[in-house]
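Components:
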Amino acid sequence: MKKNLITIVIAAVLVVIFALLLFTFQVRQSEVAVLTTFGKPAANNIDQPNLYFKWPWPIQQVYRFDQRTQIFEDKFSENLTADGTMLLTSVYVGWKISDAKEFFPKFAGGSVAAAQRQLEQMLRSAKAAVIGANNLSDFVNSDPAQLKLEAIENEIKTRVQAELASNNYGISIEFLGIKKLGLPESVTQTVFDRMKSERNKYISEAQFKGEAEATKIRSAAERQAADVLANAQADATRIEGEGVAEAAKTLSVFQQNPELAIFQLQLAALKNSLNQKSTLIFDERTPPFSLFQNLPANAGTK
Amino acid sequence: MSEHDHPHSPPLETQDAGSQALAEALRSSFVIVKIAMAALLVIIFAAGFFTVGPQEKAVILRFGKPLGEGQNMLLGAGLHWSLPYPIDEVVRIPITEIQKVSSTIGWYLTSPEMELAGTEPPAGPSLNPQIDGYVVTADRNIIHTRATVSYHIEDPRTAIFNFASGTNHQFNLTGVSNALQNAVNNALILTAARFNVDDILTRDIAGFQDAVRERVIELSEREHLGVAIDADGVQVQSIAPRQLKAAFDQVTTARQNREKLLNDATGDASRILSQAGASAASITNAAESARTRFVTGIASDAEAFTKLLPNYESNPNLFAQMELSKAMTQVLTNVEDKIFLPQRADGKPRELRLMLNREPPQPKSAANP
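Structure:
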């Protein structure tokens, strides 16, 4: 009896495992699954990771798709801008299968390569339309307000999204950006020529401007120096004038006896003028040589 | 086992030999099944062990859902255990410590090996956009620029389960690094499109790099890549086209020369100004001292005058005579030639001849004895 119980349990486990394999399927985090019943897709995608039940083949069948975002990069395409410049652009697109039940009947066996071909075709026409509506100055501009690259990217994205939605491809565009921006090869050479002449302009500009500015700086300094000196001279004159004015206050002292004052001044002048290197000629009338002529008569009175 | 049972079988002759054989066969096969089951359980349990290598991480999917949140989702190197297959599934993700992407869409055709060996293909007269990459600047110049971005996975769920490369249901980080690389490509193009060539190459190298970095971060957030850019993780290198290297170098030299000229001029200017300042100070100082000298001179004269005044007033003539005599004494000591010329006895004036000639050469020179 005990043996039988074990047998039954084992058998049951085996049956359960077999049934699980036959009647269930798993959907992983990264996947979306479509369940078909006799080839007809179910109304809903199974996009949440979990264990699901199904009837075994050939009644129901599971188709799995990767629902992760994939990057698609298109080839360079040449388009004319509104102002007639030929631009080469290449974009990258982050796209994913958003509606697997719509996606897989439209592209043979849910072929991603076929979907990307479709995407590339849409991108080509969207790029041509958007680039043709913009000027080169919208693509490159030092003024952030006039640079429209992001708007251009958004416009291309919106166009492709609209076309995908109207055809119900089951694809969604997550993001789109310009990957490369170039000019036709022949144009690069003319750009180089222009750049070179621009460089030469800068070289001579730097040389001449440098000399001119240096001269300007020096002459400005010289003018300023002259100003400083002139101001100093003026100050000196003012200071000396102040000295004279201050001295004038003491003149009242001399007014007590102008004769003495004048005598003093004359005396000082005499001393100063006959200071050195002078020849003095005098006769007996000049004191003290007047002594030679006549001695003081009243010497005795002393 | 069956051989062991045989010795006991002969007494039960009455039983049907066929059914007995069947019972025995069943019994023995059940034993085998039991052993097999036990072995299977052990195998199933043991099969749950798995190792993770140093260059990879693992994620356990239970019924398709990753176990754990955030960084806990990633199992590092070592031994791990999971439930058997239909319940758990182990997914391995190749991941290295350092995550790096570089963008070379703006660089001419080369490779690190060629760069090191100096065997890069020579620059032609023009650039074929299919082969040689470049970016167009705001002032419509063509330059080369490239960037390297180092980052780390911040949200493994997003990075692993939201981005794929190809459709083979493989789990790796190629999809997310591909997306990030394109974000860097885009950042270089968009940033170059609003910078002028001289800012990118010389004037504002750091500003350009910061702008690229900002754009990469903005895109990685907007596109929900689940990665975080490392601090100082964006390195940008920009050069002028090789075809125009000489011209660009000459501009740099000319600008440096100009800087030098200006620096020299500024130096001269400050020298001129400080000299002028010094001269001005000496002029005013001289005036100040002359003024002081003058004022004090007058003041001392006045003082002397005040002292002398009573003497003078008591006998002006005597005072004057005395002062004059004192002065004459002083004068006569200083005067070089003194000539006394008494009056002629007849009262007629004397005649003096004055020989005026140039002053003799200065005797101060040492050579002159």
